[in-house]
Amino acid sequence: MLALGLALLAPAPALAQATPDTATLEEGMRLYQGLNSCELCHLFNGSGFQHNMLFGPVPAGGPSLVKSTMTRDEMIEMVSCGKLTAGSIMPKYRGDAWTRERPCWGKLAADIPADEMPLHGERLLSGRQIEAVVDYVRAAYQGTGMGRAWCMRYFPTSPKACDTLIEGAAAPAAPAATPGTVVRPGAPAPFQLPAVPK
Ligand code: HEC
Which of 44, 68, 128, 190 lies at a 20 to 30 A Cα distance from 27? Predict the structure, then answer.
């Protein structure tokens, strides 16, 4: 009886994490947009983009969150603390990151070169907000790519945008185009090129 009582008192984080509710995911989506600037580097559909800036060796943009193999905890660490790779530009979103209160990647600020300290994001986030944005990334992008339903929530005032945006961009498992078939985004239907005479 006593053992049961203790078990009930014990926190059950795994259970709490298993299925984030819709309100949390919606909050995470709003945090991903706009001032928190995730979408600037990872794009609205999480597909990411990276290109080399003309004036420096650091690539702009961020990697694909669709293809990310990180666990939830690793993503929380990344968003809280910022980049793992030297020279990269992923910001840190916790005000107390890299301090004794919130060590990062097992380290404190003093353990890394000062010029490798990640910059702060546009707007700092609380621990709970970071969990919400990570849960959104995992639900809407990771593994599957952004589906039409999430796209239409993302662009509620212009859901038509999703007609063209979602095709091609993040479609998870589009069948490979058969040779000779030309597919243009937004085109009504693929058309067949005449077969090359043998
Ligand atoms: C200025 C550009 C920039 C912004 C803004 C940005 N990121 Fe990133 N992000 C990156 C880069 C670059 C990396 C790669 C970091 C590394 O490998 O060290 C990255 C990595 C990540 C990863 C790990 C992906 C993986 O599997 O390697 C996650 C998750 C992530 N970002 C989420 C977010 C979220 C959520 C936000 C907003 C709260 C955000 N990012 C804002 C550029 C950015």
Answer: 68
